[in-house]
Amino acid sequence: MHAFGRFGHDALHLPFDNYWQRLYQSGKAADLAEYSINRMAAKANRFMHPRSDPPNSPLADIAYAYHFDASRYARYLRKYAESRGVRRIEGKILDVRKRGTDGHIDALLLDGDRLVSGDIFIDCTGFRALLIEGALETGFEDWSHWLPCDRAVAIPCASSGPLTPYTRSTARQAGWQWRIPLQHRIGNGHVFCSSYISEDEATATLLAHLDGEALAEPRALRFKTGMRRLGWNRNVVAVGLSSGFLEPLESTSIHLIQTAITRLITYFPDQGFDAPDIDEYNRQCRLEYERVRDFIILHYHLNQRTDFPFWRRCSSMQVPGTLQRKLALYRSHGRLVRDDNELFAEVAWLQVMHGQGLRPRHCHPLAEVPEEGELARHLDNIRRVVASVVERMPDHAEYLKDYSAAKA
């Protein structure tokens, strides 16, 4: 379980997990989950929004994200943008016209002999990357040797059973299956590596593990994991799939779109398109993609399965040096490092490393300072507070029902 939000309470000199590691290694601490409101709430199928009353309430520590119907969300964003003056022009790009002086894109020729000129272009053409790659030949870094899944089959099904407050990812023969519950249906998909299983086999596996009646025909997707060598090249900025793709194990696509937009606003150019601005944009873009990449690789690499060739390959592969460093630091003394405010914080790395069976050889030396009995009482108090908070939280489905009625 990879939950959001904090674990424990940092009342001492080190982050909570260092003291937990000390007692856990000696068999005197409970499982990591019992120190997290979010994890225990998910286990009990409960949810509520955070509350800051009364002051210093642990309810303020509740963190959450949304399960979106992506098609509805896209329609909402389009309507929102157009109501504020965005003009939508539909058409097929027939030609990309570039300036001879600096290679910047000057205009797009659309069918019907329509010309769309501009100073800066944002490439949102998906995997085709018609501007950043098709016109500017920026180049693409292929990461499929680390993340070999290259296909997916998706299908919605009818809701069945309790409305759960989490995404479920289930390992399969050569990949994994997602289950994302919405109020009106369940989204399902099977991400897999075509070198180890055929599309027909993957589809059959998906259909055999649906919770309810299929609501559409299976939809197949093909992709290659990696990133564009430059997210910003000349006067084109790639956003979304045109900038790269990281498989959806941690559902990062919308986040990467949002951060790209925020980053572009921060380094928005004048007509000079100064190189330092573009270089810094690309540096931050690369760091973000690479750290998310490493976090997803972590799930595969630490697997302990021996029953299928795909999983044996993932556990034995050589991982990037940036990930090797984080694994080595954790193996030695349980140290967790977050680089440049990367997306996944220390507590996220902790949950996956510990959850996948990785154990430190030693705890942090300074975690040995507090008296053991005092430390045990501190941790036990946190467990009791977490359990008490979760017990008072409402059922997830009931909360959504009441919340939606209140907003109607």
Summarize the structure.
With 408 residues, the protein is an alpha+beta fold.
Descriptive report:
With 408 residues, this protein is α+β, with helices and mostly antiparallel strands. 37% of the residues lie in helices and 15% in strands. It contains 12 helices and 14 strands. It has helices spanning 16-25, 37-43, 70-82, 130-135, 199-207, 253-266, 275-301, 309-316, 321-333, 346-355, 372-392, 396-407, and strands at 93-98, 105-110, 114-117, 121-123, 140-142, 151-157, 168-172, 175-181, 186-192, 219-222, 226-228, 232-233, 236-238, 244-245. The strands form 4 sheets. The protein has a 5-stranded antiparallel β-sheet, with helices on one face. Strands 1-2-3 form a 3-stranded antiparallel β-sheet, with no helix packed on it. Strands 4-13-12 form a 3-stranded mixed β-sheet. A hairpin with a 3-residue loop joins β2 and β3. α2 (37-43) packs across α11 (372-392) and α6 (253-266) runs antiparallel to α7. The radius of gyration is 24 Å and the shape is globular. The two termini are 33 Å apart.
Fraction of helical residues: 25-40%
Strand content: 15-25%
Helix/strand order? HHHEEEEHEEEEEHEEEEEHHHHHHH
Category by helix and strand content: alpha+beta
Question: In angstroms, what is the radius of gyration?
Answer: 24 Å
Strand order of the largest sheet: 7-8-9-6-10
Shape: globular
Query: Average pLDDT across residues?
Result: 95
Between the first and last Cα atoms, what is the distance in angstroms?
A: 33 Å
Number of helices: 12
Spans of at least 5 consecutive residues whose pLDDT stays below 50 are none
The biggest sheet amounts to: 5 strands, antiparallel
Strand tally? 14
